[in-house]
Structure formats: structure tokens, C-alpha cells
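It would be a great kindness if you could assist me with a short task in structural biology. The full record is reproduced below for your convenience:
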Amino acid sequence: MSALTDMLADWMPGQRWFGGKGREWASVSEDGFFLDQSDPALSVHRVRVSYTDGHTETYLVPLSWRSAPAEDLASAFVGAVPGSQGENYAYDAMRDRDATVPWLTHLVAASTVGPMHFHPAGVAYIPEGLPGDVISTEQSNTSLVYGETAILKLFRRLEPGLNPDVEILDALRRTENKHIAPLLGHIEIDDTDPAQPPATVAMLQAFVPNASDGWRLATSSVRDLYAEGDLHADEVGGDFAGESERLGEATASVHADLARVLPTEPADRDWYAAVAAQMTERLEAALAVVPDLAEHGDALRALYAAVAETDEPVVRQRVHGDLHLGQVLRTTSGWIVLDFEGEPARPLAARRETDTPLRDVAGMLRSFDYAARHMLVEQPDDPQRAYRAQEWAERNRTAFCAGYSAAAPDITLSSESALLRAFEADKAVYECVYEARNRPHWLMIPLSSLSRLTSGD
């Protein structure tokens, strides 16, 4: 391997966006090109990591280059490689403000640089010339905010094909839906295999300033409830039910417009059977990781088997795919839904398939449960707090469903729905695996929800 490849192989496993943590590498290779050769120079690299289990992933790594160490960028330092005139110092270009300007310069110019193609949407102003500030809280991607105008999201893991976030926002642009932030452009890179379509590298979207994310607002409401020992959820000043109802309306509005501008198809018996089989397969895999799931195993299998036999009508369409309170923003004018790429861990082709809107509804209902119960982790044996958490969750779940149903009268959200209950349970099983591996003390949250879902309450 080259010095550059060695450097990247040492640095990547420590990055939050790298999805191969804990897996054994078989080999690594990279190819790159310069996107800008001013000072600092900006290069873009595709790093292909092959694992001993036979799988391969490709990551996008932009680097900025300096001839001397930059003390103010110590936290972004990647490494140094020898050059003809001494050491060249490489930094994470997404955290080097001086190296963030070229992305929008090329987008405005609709440039092609090497294998990379820049596609402006041509619908709004792009703040050319501004540096971008990195958002430090992201997991699988990296985003830069340019002033209060635009946000660039870099997709770290590359897959051939158009990213659903770009595809869906481009389609929704025709509807003028007020619950999305408009797409301003996107960037693609040609695959090294000419038979494969280009991969989406990044997208530029209108930035939503002065907004609060749904998770923070919801958990603030829960804290208000816990602080008022003698009041019910509907009596507390921070009652969130009105917002939950409006969020339901916004979600239904986005679903309706997705059905207008992207393909739909009625679900057939094979689809119901496939959904049930996938849920059961995930359950069996989860049981090997989370022994505490065993007490719910038979009830969950029966719940999933009911999906294969249900006569609930479903019109398949494009959906969000990973909807929860952290994916929505509350502005002065209403709710904005973000991040339509689906679950990043799933293959891109699977994320572009049609599905039922009930999957998104179930994801949001699970999020209300998490918001209500996250503080129970600190006091798991407090029955008064547990009662209040359940009361808050039920009030806001009901309000969300009421708002959704009012805006989408042809879709009935009922606790009797085998599909909705199964999608909630499937999500909770996924959460059990995540918590067991990452936050074992949080495992009680999805497990308690499974008790409710499998009991029919």
C-alpha cells in the first residue's frame, strides 16, 4: 500500500461515519483527484475497504493539504505523507473551513472535475464564496452549513445509483410542499465500473434557521410533566399534543404528495408474505443477540404471521423510511421533514423500493415512546414516573394519529391494525439489538414496548 493508503487506513476506523467498526479488514485501496489546487489544496478520495467476510464498502474522503502543520486544525489532522519538497499535511477537508468553498463554487458553475459532476437545481440562490461550518452531531454523513442559506450533506458511504434523499426532494419540488426544505443541487461521481450508474456524493438543500428539532421539543415536554407531580399530561404548560397532531398532518401531507409524483402500486399477497418473512428473519437474528427477547418470541411470531394473512388494503408508494422525532424540525410556520435517504445501513436499492406509509407512522410512534421513557433509565423502579411516561406517550401517539387521519381520510390508523402493530414491533426488535450492543441500560425501553404490543393493549 502507498503512504496515503496507509494513512487513511489508520485514520478511518476512528471516524463516527465509518460503518465498519469491529470488522476485520482484508484489504484497502484508494483512488483520488484534486477538486481544487489553491491553498489549501482539496482532494477527493474513494477508499474501498474489503472485509474478511467477503463484503466491500466504498467511502468518500475529502482531504485538505497544507505545507506546514495548522495548529487550529489539530482535531482534523489525518496524517502526513512525504512530498518532493518535504512533508505534506493532510486534514479532514470537511472540518477545514478554508477548504469548504470549492464545493459550492463548482455547483454554481455546473462543473465536471474528473469523475465528479455538479448539478445545480436552478431553483434558488446558492451562496457561492462562503465557507461552510461542519455539524458535529451526525453519524453516517457529514454536513456543512453555509451562512443561514444552505446546507451541504456529504454521503460518506458510496453506492451506485441516485440517493433517495435527492430523488424524493427533486420529485417533491413539483408539489411545492411546505413541509420540506427545497433541494438546491446535488453532486455525483462516476463509478469505476462503467456499467454501473454514478453514485450520489452530496446534496445541497435550503437551510432552515431558527428551528428546533422534534426530539428536543418532545423531551422538554416530558421533563415539564415529570416536574409537575400532581398534574396530568394535558394539564402541563408544556403539553406537546397539539404539536404532535400538527406533525401527523405534516407527515400525511408529505405522503400524499409522494404518492402524486412517484410510482405507486397495490400490494399483492406476495408482498404481505415477504414483509412477514423479513420481520420473522430479523426477529430470529435478534434473539441470538438479545436473550431477553425470548419471552416475547412466540407472540411476535404470531403477530408477524398475521401480516401474511391480513386483508388490510395497502397501496405501496415511496416513503421516508427512517422517520422519527430527530428527523423533523419545528419552525415558526410549521413542521419540516428532513433526511429522506432511509436507514443508511440498508442497501440503496432497498431504500428506493415502494412501501406502506404505515412504516413511517410506526417509526414516529416508536419515537414518542422513546421520548416519554428515556428519563426512566435513571429511575427504572419509579412507578409514578412510569405511569406518567405511559400517559404522555399515549396522549401524543393518539394526537399524531388523529392529525394524520384528518389529513389522509383514506388511511385509518387503528390500534387494531395488524400491520401497524407489526411494524412497531419490528422497529422495537431492531431497537433491542441496538441498545444491547450500544446502551444496555436503555434496553428496558423497547422491551417494555414489546410487552404492550404483544399483549394487545
Notes: Residues 98-206 form one domain. The chain has a mean pLDDT of 92. The longest helix spans residues 383-407. Residues 66 and 75 are 15 Å apart (CA to CA).
